[in-house]
Design a protein that fits this description.
The complex is a heterodimer of chains A (about 300) and B (about 575). With about 300 residues, chain A is an all-alpha fold. Chain A has 14 helices and no strands. Helix content of chain A is about 80%, strand content about 0%. Helices cover about 30% and strands about 25% of the residues of chain B. In chain B, α4 packs across α5. The two termini of chain B are about 25 Å apart. Chain B contains 18 helices and 26 strands. The chains are: A mainly alpha (about 300), B alpha/beta (about 575). The interface between A and B is medium-sized, with 22 and 45 residues.
Chain lengths: ~300, ~575
């Protein structure tokens, strides 16, 4: 599906973007996240309790074929990925909270993802699904190391940090557009043959994640900015990790079927996230204090 | 003027300590003050401009000395200005500001500070009234130039960028973000000289020994005019308060006397987020903290307040001159309240009343005091300031060194002990009068006594408290709004029969501008039409936040609109609702 060279290139670009994201952060931002652990906890809950349940309910109501249903539940049980950090950055959300949530959910994935799969997917499939340690860890490294470097750079020289941040941001937009542009022609055949239920499931899982992630955290009193951050973190799953898990655990026709929703999800989530991000960004801008006439 | 007069009509309670005499001025004139300060702190950072994304540019004291010399050489040698010529500087807080302000003073010219957000009519009035020959303007507002130049006698326009003097790559990037992404830099359609070119020309003149900067102010004394600082005063007509070198130097010394021992020379970092063109930040940041060898952190726009986050995160800010709205706003920013600046020693509040609740919360959150002072444009500005260690909430403190204060009744006579009266001030910081307006000057200045228009009273131990304002002045976030000006503007809108403008208390801005509009019979106008019309010719803070359309206005029996009745109405309404905002602010 994606060649090793492309994978490396992608990882490299994500690395540069995360370097830019890191350049916008300080230790204080992370300490502030830990000052309000309820945001992290709610994020955790909506990611591993809410999402798999939504996936399961969707699979049942849409009467998806078992392998497709497994793909759906798998994507619903994934931790967050770097994409959620990028969109949080663009939405002017709480980036430190997003990175913290991604880190926690990724580390927890060793336990929580198999657990969620065991609870919801075992009625669709009997065989074991292995969560590869390597791909989980490497995914985290690609996020955390550049973030730490970015933070250090900014601390040393705010001008270089700001330039990194700018480059990361521009590259972030480029990569979002490139992902959509490259994905569609490659999977044109797939798009044409996929039944509507699968489309519906692949789109809904992300959209419902955004919606319920937001509602839960807003009701919990996190305030708009953090609720939006948790929302993005909940809806945006680590798609590439889901793909690698499928390829690691299955082969042949069944793998093609299971991988269907993770692949479709990876396309649509970028599109939906872009719209949701524009909305959150507007609101976050609006909620800022702009007091009158001191210039 | 530094000695206490023995006045038989002085009725202050005997326990009131008289202000100490003022020590000698720190320098002969402001040019000398700048030169001496720069020589003393040479390589230390003097100014750092911080953009919202954290990009910054630095100037050390040696650079400030050299570059402001270049400005002076350019103004005199390059443009051929003469001593005493007016130079209008219309810049937001940026590295260019201190260079052009100091350069103007070093040239022996008179600095005319101008709000960059002014509309064309406001600019034209100030430029024509002051007779400015040169205008230094920021590129962000260059779109106003064609119209302004048509209506004024400005001979030279120097166009400055916010990012001028930043490291070149950073400046290039930041400029292009503003130009192509934010699109806030308009095209320039009139001939201008860029700030960079002006500096280069000045440098050449100095190098070729065609300009001797020191000679420009060799004869300048404390009595010579340094700045025309425009203000509506208490009557609303925008006029230039004539501040001499001595006025401003005295105020620097007066602030120094009050915070001596707290501000460690050469070791402090002061936040300059209030605009330097305003007298408060001009004297506090640009003159006082600069003179104290502090590093001034310049922030061009505090809107949104999140723009200040990088400044607070990246620099060891130890002093914050501010206004009530700024302190309150910062306390409401989570990033600020979570990690208040750890090295903050103190903050100075002025411009408008500091609410006791805000002062207490500020002290609690930042673990440092905010001390309130009082002043006016006409007094350079500081008249009173609380003592640093024993600051009293709700009080404006005691007169600063060399300053006499009296409370007068409506006949201009001192009031009896314990009574409130109009605050009158005499001291070395009081202006010489309004520029070319003897009539206006006569209204407020007699025998060196300046009538402030504010009603004050003494507490038992000599602390002063402002109790009311004599005039109808509205203060929005520390900025004076004159009802007459806004009413004049609204009255020009077709369909308007009558209009009255008052200030109503607001927990955030102190006061809000509210307009009552009576439409002409048979015509309909909307509140939004009124606001839109105001936006055409008034700066943002003057535009009424609230517009009420009604059939008639309360009037006296001679037909004069009673603003007081409208205020009483509002007060009555406020009293009925449970949420009551406290009033009481001043200029």
């Amino acid at each position: 599906m994606v060649s090793p060279t492309e994978q490396l290139l992608l990882a490299l670009m994500i690395g540069v973007i995360m370097l830019g994201m890191g350049s916008s952060l300080t230790w204080r931002d992370f300490r502030r996240s830990f000052k309000r652990p309820q945001a992290i906890l709610i994020g955790f809950a909506s990611q591993y309790l809410l999402m798999p349940l939504i996936g399961f309910i969707l699979a049942i109501t849409l009467q998806l074929p078992p392998p497709v249903a497994v793909g759906l539940i798998l994507i619903a049980s994934m931790p967050g990925g770097s994409t959620s950090n990028i969109f949080t950055y663009f939405s002017k959300g709480d980036l430190a909270l997003s990175v913290t949530m991604t880190t926690f959910s990724t580390l927890a994935a060793f336990v929580m993802t198999p657990l969620a799969l065991f609870i919801y997917a075992s009625r669709f499939i009997t065989s074991e699904i292995a969560v590869g340690m390597g791909s989980v860890i490497s995914g985290l490294v690609v996020i955390l190391i550049p973030v730490l470097i970015g933070m250090a750079v900014r601390r040393r020289n705010a001008n270089i940090g700001a330039v990194f941040e700018l480059i990361g941001g521009i590259l972030g937009v480029v990569i979002i557009l490139a992902l959509i542009a490259l994905w569609v022609p490659r999977n044109a055949g797939l798009l044409a043959t996929t039944p509507w239920q699968v489309y519906f499931a692949a789109i809904s899982i992300g959209a419902l994640g955004f919606l319920f992630g937001f509602i839960t955290s807003y009701l919990a009193g996190l305030g708009f900015r953090r609720a939006a951050t948790v929302s993005l973190e909940t809806g945006i799953q680590n798609g590439p990790l889901a793909l690698s898990i499928v390829l690691l655990s299955f082969t042949g026709a069944i793998a093609d079927e299971i991988v269907l929703i993770p692949v479709l999800y990876s396309l649509f989530i970028v599109i939906i996230s872009s719209f949701v991000t524009i909305f959150y960004r507007r609101q976050n801008n609006r909620l800022q204090q702009r007091f009158v006439a001191l210039l | 003027m530094t000695t206490e007069i023995n006045d038989p009509t002085d009725v202050r309670p005997t326990s009131i300590p008289t202000a100490p005499a003022l020590n000698a001025l720190p320098a002969r004139n402001l040019a000398e003050l700048v030169a001496q300060t720069c020589a003393r702190y040479a390589q230390q950072p003097a100014f750092t401009a911080v953009l919202p994304n954290g990009m910054f540019g630095n100037l050390n004291f040696e650079q400030v000395a050299r570059l402001s010399d270049q400005v002076a050489a350019y103004l005199r040698g390059g443009l051929g200005l003469a001593a005493g010529d007016r130079v209008a500087v219309q810049l937001p807080n940026s590295l260019a500001y201190p260079l052009w302000a100091f350069g103007t003073l070093k040239a022996g010219c008179v600095l005319v500070n101008m709000n960059p957000l002014y509309t064309v009519p406001e600019m034209a009035h100030q430029l024509n009234d002051s007779g400015a020959r040169a205008l230094i303007i920021v590129d962000l507002f260059a779109d106003k130039l064609p119209a302004v130049l048509e209506q004024t006698k400005i001979e030279h326009v120097i166009l400055v960028r916010i990012t001028d003097l930043f490291p070149s790559l950073i400046g290039f990037i930041a400029h292009n973000i503003m130009k192509y992404w934010n699109r806030i830099i308009p095209e320039v359609s009139v001939p201008v000289t860029t700030g960079t070119a002006a500096l280069a020309q000045g440098a050449n003149l100095i190098r070729d020994r065609k300009a001797d900067v020191a000679s420009y102010t060799a004869q300048t004394t404390a009595n010579d005019l340094a700045a025309l600082q425009y203000t509506g005063g208490t009557t609303g007509v925008s006029k230039g308060a004539m501040l001499s070198h001595g006025n401003l130097l005295a105020n620097v010394a007066q602030i120094e006397e009050r915070v001596a021992g707290e501000v460690i020379h050469g070791k402090e970092t002061a936040l300059a987020v209030l605009p330097l063109y305003h007298i408060f930040a001009f004297t506090a940041n640009l003159l006082y903290f600069f003179h104290a060898g502090a590093r001034n952190i310049l922030v061009a726009s505090p809107r949104p307040l999140a723009n200040l986050q990088r400044a607070f995160e990246n620099y060891p800010i130890s002093w914050v001159p501010g206004v009530n709205t700024l302190f309150n706003g910062l306390l409401n920013e989570e990033w600020f309240a979570d990690y208040p600046p750890p090295l903050l020693k103190g903050s100075i509040a002025g411009g408008t009343a500091l609410y006791a609740a805000v002062a207490e919360r500020w002290q609690r959150v930042t673990n440092s005091p905010v001390i309130e002072g009082y002043g006016l444009t006409e007094s350079s500005p500081v008249v009173t300031l609380n003592p640093f260690r024993t600051s009293r909430p709700g009080s404006i403190g005691q007169p600063v060194a060399g300053t006499e204060v009296r409370l007068l009744n409506v006949f201009g006579e001192p009031v009896a002990a314990g009574e409130s009266g109009e605050l009158a001030v005499r001291g070395p910081q009081v202006m010489h009068g309004y520029w070319q307006r003897p009539d206006e000057t006569a209204k407020v200045l007699t025998d060196g006594w300046l009538l402030t228009g504010d009603i004050a009273e003494y507490e038992a131990d000599g602390f002063l408290r402002i109790v009311d304002r004599k005039k109808d002045l509205i203060i929005v976030s520390g900025f004076n709004v004159y009802p007459n000006e806004v009413e004049d503007c609204i009255a020009k809108l077709s369909g308007v029969s009558e209009v009255a403008v008052i200030g109503i208390p607001d927990s955030k801005a102190g006061e809000l501008v509210k307009a009552y509009v009576v439409p002409k019979a048979g015509e309909t106008i909307t509140a939004e039409q009124v606001r839109e019309h105001c936006r055409q010719s008034l700066t943002g803070y003057k535009v009424p936040k609230l517009v009420e359309l009604r059939d008639e206005l309360p009037k006296t029996n001679v037909g004069k609109v009673l603003r007081r009745a409208l205020r009483d109405e509002e007060q009555h309404k406020a009293a009925q609702s449970t949420q009551r905002a406290s009033g009481g602010s001043r200029g």
